[in-house]
Predict the 3D structure of the following.
Amino acid sequence: MSEQYPVSGGKMVISPDGTSTYVRFYDRPQTADETKAFAKYADLSPLEILRRLRVAEWNADVCQRERDRWRVETQRLQGELAAAERKLAAYPPDGYELPKVVADLLAHTTAHGWKTAVAWTLRVEGGAYVDVRLGRLADPAEARFPGARWEYQMTWGFPGPGARGARVRTSLAKTPDSAQWRDAPSLKKIREVIAANPMPRTDAP
């Protein structure tokens, strides 16, 4: 308590050895709003006030635990929703299908233990595009920096249902020797990289 305020009260503290000390309180002056709010406590003993304070603190602690529990539950549900949206986005819209070169690339990627992700998006102006991501984490022995990975991002655009897709935008790549995105190589080169770096097997002996 700051001594910049006038003495508002005090109490006598008796130590185990029998000595006593008077402790002064220097509280900020009570406001008019506080005077009204504190009026209901005027007839309560200090012990009863402490009891009510204890109950209030317990209730606040319970509320905090409930908030924390619901925060965790909300994060879990958001994760499930995001996973469901990813699964839904992987299905092609009516009238569209993956180009054979993309389907073959995904099969090749999966066969070598890499992860794949496909996300379709319908365009407001018509047509659609599909984003394709391929990748796997590098082993520590393969990596030059923590979290190193091979990752490729490519997009194919479709002018309308039934149309053949064509690669659009700049395809991007990350590799264990570089954490920065850069232009991806050709599909043939990507297939070669995947074949040369399959996901190590983790089968138990």
